[in-house]
Amino acid sequence: MASLHFASALLPTGWAEDVQVVISNGAISSVSAGVAPTSDDEQHEVALPGIASLHSHAFQRGMAGLAEISGPSTDTFWTWRETMYRFALSMRPEDVEAVATLLYVEMLERGFTRVGEFHYLHHDRDGTPYADIAEMAGRIAAAAQTSGIGLTLLPSFYAHGGFGGAAPHDGQRRFICDVDQFAKLLAASRRVIGSLAGASLGIAPHSLRAVAPDELNALLPLAEGGPVHIHAAEQVKEVEDCLAWSSQRPVQWLLDHHDLNDRWCLIHATHMTADETAALARSGATAGLCPVTEASLGDGIFPARDYLRAGGRIGVGTDSNVLVGVGDELRQLEFGQRLTHRERNVLTSGPAASTGRTLFDAALAGGAQALSQSFAGLQVGARADLVTLDLSHPSLAGRTQDALLDGWIFATSHGAIDCVWAGGARVVQGGHHRSRETARRGFNTAVRRLLA
Ligand code: NGQ
Ligand code: ZN
Questions:
Q1: Residue 268 · residue 300 · CB < 8 Å
Q2: Is this structure's pTM higher than 0.85?
């Protein structure tokens, strides 16, 4: 049992002063506001709940910055994807573990305490399953264990290279399963995470490009009530191909064929009509936004203003992990709207409301929903995932409450976070994860070898 005391903390009811949080067995067992610190309390200044990166492809952290050279023709998402496939084909299980370990360490240092790992790099380099079909899932779980991050593993089903059941490309061979194989993979993944504290499981039909309608129907019961994540409408070409195949756009097709509800998370959902935007908002599903990756890949801009005004739920994900940070995602989300609408403070909840606070609250709630966490924020029963701010950072000087969130999100890149607890363990102190050095060494060794 540990007892922490904060001069100020963001609780589900809002900011509170003099807050004591008691942690037992990795979860919050009591929260009391307006109490003086006792001699048993470890004291800190300002606490926030950790939030989820609800969409990550961990292995892609290994190629961050390596796809910024122009090719022979116009570079697009699709040319980036070829580079990404080549990188994926080169990685051994130990490389994936080393890369994921550093990534999860970085996520924790930058305010993410849970990750939704949309995991599709399943098989050996020639496309045959490993002797243990969940070998790669085990590597992801090991990285979560080493770093301490909460893991929601989302094994991905990938069967086709395009709409209408097109055959997969050779570069996709490590991702491919049929439904029976996937059921085995999922059962093995359930065992893998069974021994990992705070871990949970969902499923990730990759996209309507990669999954046929009958396969999607067969997959849904396998989730056993867990979350369902799917990429949708990220690229204009995907929307056009979906229209050619079904006469419907991807989000419209999903709304029409499935009961989208709070178990569903549509990743990106970038290209929607006004009707799709309103209907997705009404469905109760989460839109899993990845603003940094969406900018990096030239995807387009999600209609966040209209979607939020219609009551839509959002969470954020670091996706390709080219840059990793809570502040980076929330800032990019708001900046995309500013550039689109040529206004400031677009995603705010009303007059005099802090934009940082609005975005943080939305991503906290949406991330918890999308990763099936029953409690969001610092409350009894929640996993003890907390972040404290370093008030010596110049962009936080003289600020309190919501102004701290705005300072962190809009005016810092690094250095605003002091300590992080994940599942009750203090894994980050003074901004440094306890495994930072070993994680960097492991990552650097793996990536140097991959690039040699
Ligand atoms: C992914 N990434 O699954 O890693 C995809 C690329 C695809 C993004 N969509 C592969 N950002 O969509 O076919
Ligand atoms: Zn993705």
A1: no
A2: yes
